[in-house]
Design a protein that fits this description.
There is one protein chain. By secondary structure, the protein is α/β, with parallel strands linked by helices. It starts with 6 loop residues before the first strand and ends in a 20-residue tail after the last helix. It folds into 2 domains: 172 residues, D-Maltodextrin-Binding Protein, domain 2 (3-Layer(aba) Sandwich); 99 residues, 3-Layer(aba) Sandwich (D-Maltodextrin-Binding Protein, domain 2), CATH 3.40.190. Strands 2-1-3-10-4 form a 5-stranded mixed sheet, with helices on both faces. It has a 5-stranded mixed sheet with strand order 7-6-8-5-9. Strand 6, helix 5 and strand 7 form a beta-alpha-beta unit. It holds the Pfam family NMT1_2. It comes from Planoprotostelium fungivorum. Belongs to the bacterial solute-binding protein SsuA/TauA family. It is found in: Periplasm.
Length: 288
């Protein structure tokens, strides 16, 4: 007899995309489904959450599509995709130090030192996508990488000369352009829906629990106020961001073709060597 899990440790990145998660917790949507959910923030991003799923620190996590699929494409089997969180692509900004000689993306050609949060993170993987877009992959590794952990550490690294540049989500970064702390030298969109929900492989098979969790997540009506007051964004930036983002209408939907195309891009960028069978990466969750 299988015992249904009702206590979930949910990992997330504490940025504006976390709004539906916070609302589901504050407004009691998890409790309505008899779930006890502990929210665990991971400011260092998706790569850190892959480790946390492996060691049991979290049961379920919401993070960047490219990070999850890179891990799965590299042979990790301790988690599975259970849902699509955000349908729209993510805009990544390329940033350099305020007084850096780097003025544009072209200045990063030929072995620039790129700051990343962790190996396997979105900031790491998107550097390869940037290199692919600029046709810099024909001569081996396009960059050297320097893992520094948090977003703040990345900003410090480009200003103290440790790194030439780093990549992070645009709206999270914009405040620091406005303050003059760092400068934008380019940008790039992900060629895929930006956020997925994953669960530890054993937890993913608890379909009733997964169904209740996914159906609990809701955007809520106070997103602009929450983002601008508690996540350190201006009201104007919060409103602009909300116009660009489309949360999934039904989180349990996972499109195989999207996963395959994403893995193909990651293969072409040198992030994964072979494309696994997509169906083996997903646990299908149905809910009303």
């Amino acid at each position: 007899m299988t015992i249904m899990v009702t206590s979930i440790k949910l990992g997330y990145v504490p940025e504006h995309f976390s709004t539906p998660i916070i609302f589901a917790d504050r407004l009691g949507f998890f409790r309505e489904k008899s779930l006890s959910v502990e929210l665990i923030p991971f400011p260092s991003g998706t790569g850190h959450m892959i480790e946390a799923l492996s060691n049991g620190t979290v049961d379920v996590a919401i993070g960047l599509t490219e990070g999850w699929l890179a891990g799965l494409g590299q042979g990790k089997t301790h988690y599975k995709v259970v849902g699509t969180y955000v349908q729209s692509p993510l805009l990544w900004a390329v940033s350099a130090g305020a007084s850096s000689d780097v003025k544009e993306i072209g200045d990063l050609k030929d072995k620039a030192n790129i700051g990343i949060s962790r190996l396997g993170s979105g900031s790491h993987i998107m550097s390869y996508v940037l290199a692919k877009e600029n046709q810099w992959l024909s001569h081996g590794e396009p960059f050297s990488f320097h893992p520094v952990g948090t977003f703040q550490n990345l900003r410090n690294a480009v200003n103290d000369g440790t790194c030439h540049a780093f990549m992070w989500e645009y709206f999270t970064t914009k405040k620091y352009y406005d303050l003059g702390e760092i400068k934008q030298v380019g940008q790039i969109y992900t060629p895929w829906p930006s956020w997925l929900v994953v669960a530890r492989a054993d937890i993913s098979k608890q379909h009733e629990t997964m169904s209740n969790l996914l159906s609990s997540l809701d955007r809520g009506d106070e997103a602009v106020s929450y983002i601008s007051t508690e996540l350190d964004y201006t009201k104007e930036d919060a409103e602009k961001w909300l116009k660009t983002v489309r949360f999934s209408d039904k989180l349990g939907d996972v499109q195989d073709e999207m996963l395959k195309k994403t893995l193909e891009v990651l293969r072409d960028a040198g992030v994964v060597k072979e494309i696994p069978k997509v169906d083996a990466l997903v646990e299908r969750i149905q809910y009303e």
